[in-house]
Structures are given as C-alpha cells and as structure tokens.
Design goal:
Elements: E1 6-10, E2 17-21, E3 26-30, H1 33-39, E4 44-49, E5 54-58, E6 63-66, H2 68-71, E7 80-84, E8 90-95, E9 100-104, E10 117-119, E11 134-135, E12 148-149
Parallel strand pairs: 3-10
Antiparallel strand pairs: 1-2, 2-5, 3-4, 4-9, 6-7, 7-8, 8-9, 11-12
C-alpha cells in the first residue's frame, strides 16, 4: 500500500478533527451486536489504523470515552469508544489489546472504503451477498478462530 497517503476527518459538528497517514491495516464490516448498537445501524463499516498513524488535530478536550467491559467491572476492555461531547458523533475506537485504532469509514473525508471481509457474521441482522469472506468471529491473524461462514 502507498504509505504516503494522508486523510483528514472530523465529527459531525467539526469540533473534533483528526488526521490519518499511510493506509489502514484493514477495512471490513462488523456485524456484532455491540457495533450495531454503537453505530445505530445494521452493519458497521470500520477501518483499522496503527496508533502512530492517527492524530487528533483539534478538539481533544471535547472527546468523551466509554469502555463497556471496564464500566461493568470486568477485565480491561478491548474497545474504548470515543465520541464528540458536543455533537455526539462517533470519532474512533481504541482497541488496545489489538494495537489498533478503529475509525468509522464514514467520518474520513474523501476516503475510498474497500472492505476485505466481514467479522462476527454469525450475529448478522443484514445478510450481505458480496463475495467477501464472512468470519464467524475474527480472522485467525486477529486472534479469532478464522472460521468462515457461508454467505
């Protein structure tokens, strides 16, 4: 991939802005109930970036955060969701155990989303027949079973 690429993005009201450099580590769709509830949609289109390629450039003081697992008294969470406290727009999700930052594709300006697979497809409420691999949980490289499901 071309490591000289750069992108900009922002929340709905523009109070929080960020920049991305290089290319995402992965682009895909998530069908898990947690992502569906967070995105308020039947499918979540995500991009994963190395933390060093993601930078908040404006409005860091306006970012709210929530870690569902930590908030319920369980072990440290795998998804620390971040949003703009002014407009409520989703901005990114830290996945510290995976070493990536998850940026919703829709908040990146002038970005071509080109998904490579689906994750947590066993939870789908919106089947998609697009020819992409459909993983039961996650690809093996990401710590999942790598088990694929039929379209």
């Amino acid at each position: 991939m071309n490591q000289s690429s750069s992108y900009q993005g922002k929340c709905f009201c523009g109070a929080v802005e960020f920049s991305l450099s290089g290319e995402p580590e992965a682009m895909a769709y998530c069908h898990c109930s947690s992502c569906r509830q967070w995105s308020a949609g039947p499918v979540n289109a995500f991009t994963l970036w190395k933390p060093e390629n993601f930078k908040i450039t404006q409005g860091a003081d306006k970012i709210g955060a929530f870690d569902k697992i930590a908030a319920t008294g369980q072990k440290a969470g795998t998804s620390n969701r971040k949003w703009c406290k002014t407009c409520g727009s989703h901005v990114f999700i830290d996945h510290p155990t995976m070493g990536v930052v998850d940026v919703p594709a829709v908040v990146i300006d002038d970005f071509t989303f080109s998904p490579g697979f689906h994750v947590h497809y066993q939870e789908t409420v919106h089947p998609m027949k697009d020819g992409l691999p459909k993983f039961k949980d996650l690809p093996a490289e990401a710590g999942g079973s790598g088990e694929e499901l039929a379209e």
